[in-house]
Write a structure and sequence with these properties.
alpha+beta, 5-stranded antiparallel β-sheet, 27 helices, 14% strand, disordered C terminus
Amino acid sequence: MSKIQPRWWIGALALAFVANFLVAHVYLPFSASPSVGIQTRFGSKEPRVWKVDPGSPAHSAGTRSGDLIKGVSADSLDSADEYYLLEQLISQSDGTVITVERSGKQLALKLKITGTYFESLSDVDRFALLFWILIGALELAVAAFLAFGRPHDSSALSASLFLAVLTGLNSQSAGSAAVLRALPLFLRAIIYPVSLLPLEMLFFAFFFCANFPRPLFRRNTWIKLSVPAVLIYAYMALLNLPLCFGAHPAQMFQIGVGVYFETVKIPSLLVLCGYGVAAVIVVIVNFRRCDIAERRRIKLMLVGGLIGLASIVPAAIIHDLIHSDLVSRSGLISIGFGLLRIIFLACFVYAVVKQKVFAIPVLLQRSGRYLLVQRGYLFVLVTFGVLITAFFARELAQHVPATAGLSVPIGAAFGIALVWFGTIVHKRVQMQLDRAFFRSAYDAQQLLEEMAERSRRATSRSELAEILRARIHSALKPVRIAVLLETTPGRLTSFESNGSPMTLDAKTPSLLALAKSGRPRELEQEDWESGALEGLSDLRPECLVPIIGRAEDLRGLLLLGSKLSEEPYSSEDLRLLQSAAMQAGVALENISLAEDIAVRLQAEQIAARELEIARSVQRKLLPDAAPVLNSLQCVGRCLQARQVGGDFYDFLEYAPGKLGLVLADIAGKGISAALLMANLQAHLRSHRVLAPTDIETALASVNRLFRNGIEVGSFATLFLGFYDDMSNVLTYANCGHAPPAVMRRDGRVHRLEATATVLGAFADWRCDVEEVKLEEGDVLVLYSDGITEAENENGEQFGEARLLELLHGCRDLAADQLLETIIGTVLDFSHNQQIDDITLVIAQAKAVPKLLHRAASSSHMTQ
């Protein structure tokens, strides 16, 4: 989520509230406000003294209860206004003289005002004052946190303003105007506007309630609703303006300013009370239109509000009864009200800032049990250790006086060892304590740990989703729960027992941030208002638990609604959920891996079957046996390095007594080479060579067709020979193939070198045709490079020299025996580690019986 910059007016208001707090709560009681000791009654026609504080300047001057104050330092006082009286007393010098009427006589009493308000208090009252200053500072800190943390959240801003205004109720009002007049003008201009805001506390309460937890009115409506409060504020600001900025504020009271205040007092109170009633109404309206989680927040806020009223209203009533501030008259009662204010502030912060409500009874119950049981055990253990240490040290000092100096260190060491041993025991009995006193938490932990164990054994996503759903529901009792798991990369699909499945994009910024954190997240109101979780708005979950894979990517998501008990998810719940999600992530990875393996195995099985079919087809493309000739015995074999290969040989019988010998090697291996081999073989068989002169033309056509059907860079080497059984002549073309060898009967070797380039590489292709006559006992060997390039463990190749040497030694063997000998020798040399296809054709010239030779000659002459 983007970072929001604070608005300028928030900083201005914060500065004004802080300045007002420092003046009213710190400067006024500690420096500027002296102790007078006169308490008068409000609202009476005459400023009559109600009580005089013992030991105060007024008591020392002889002021008594019942005295009627007629003037201050020669200024007459016609109306009873305590506020003005205190202002006059504070603003005078040490020689302040008050004129009182007692028993029909007027007396001039000189007050010697010394010290400050704080110095006049007892120790308990001083502590109460400091305590309330701390409360005000905490309230201002929370208000600043809300305002600057969520400057565009109307609920947070209204809560911040409410707290800041509430802080002003704690201030010492007596003498504030005189203090303000002594401040620089710019400070007065900053402080004065906010110092009057507490007068309209009920309006700000209404403003807050109408925006919590969601705004109820639009801006135009707010303008209309705020008009009465603004008019009251403006009237009071104008009425008090001369007191803070005027040169002669006493003249305001001499002209009867109290009359103007009394004129609007009752209507203003009625309007402000109307705002209080409106605050209750908007709370009811908001409660009815909010969801369960927001209703819990409102409940807690109502509880906090009642506690807050308990800290304000009684204090105000007592103030009216004793006609003085509560702190200086009853510090203990003031501290009690302060504690209530602390509880209100805690409720306020929890509901507004945390936005996850914990019912107060449950909070108190769990806190008490936690302190009494879990921490109580440690407290007892430490206390017992301290007592044993003291007892051990005392006994050691009494019975062994010589070790009196060491008794304390020895006893301390003994106590530390005892505490250390106790902590070990505490870990062992912790489970029993949980089981006995925290049954629900213990059961939830056991259920979630069992779920983590069972999830690892899940074999499908649906089974894993059901385990997660059932166990989490049993452990935490959420109102609703949804389990979304990754079915395709980047997409999460819900596995629901009923209803249509929901899908989410796992690549959204909010979910990517959740995956990066790897921790469960409790959702807040601003998450929904930002629109970052728009896809989850129908479910409205309260907690998101990411399921993270090994690559730290989001593999699943748990959506948990609020608990049936209306309790929030505790840190222990979140920890267990995170642990369970981690186990679920491992299980999901295993399921995905098993699925991938199953798919791969199925694909491999299909591919194996297809390869076996291809191998069978390719085997059938090779000749089973060579045609029987009178003067030549031919055999051949092809061993693929893989299931299929690119080598092939063929015996093409074009006409009786005419045999074509073919051996080709396609560049490459495997399926692609096998397909090209079949393609080349088809082209060769479609071009029958009827005479030796047709070889060049046929191969040119084969080159053209073959080249059109292959990728750039592919080619084939080929040896094509045309053998005439009557003339014993082999007419051949060698297209870039390894030169076949003719081993003569006398041991000489004749190589059939290349007569053309490879097939398929060049469009402009030509070849030459050569002839060789095979005599009785000659052996023709056609081979692929899989024979000569076979390697042993040292990387040494079999080579042509070994092949010719082997051929020379075994040339008297029959053709089939010679073929088996050569292939066996090559495989033994390479230890059966075949890196390329091995193809070998043996053509052995033999003697022709005379009768058959004469018959063949006659037949030839006839033709």
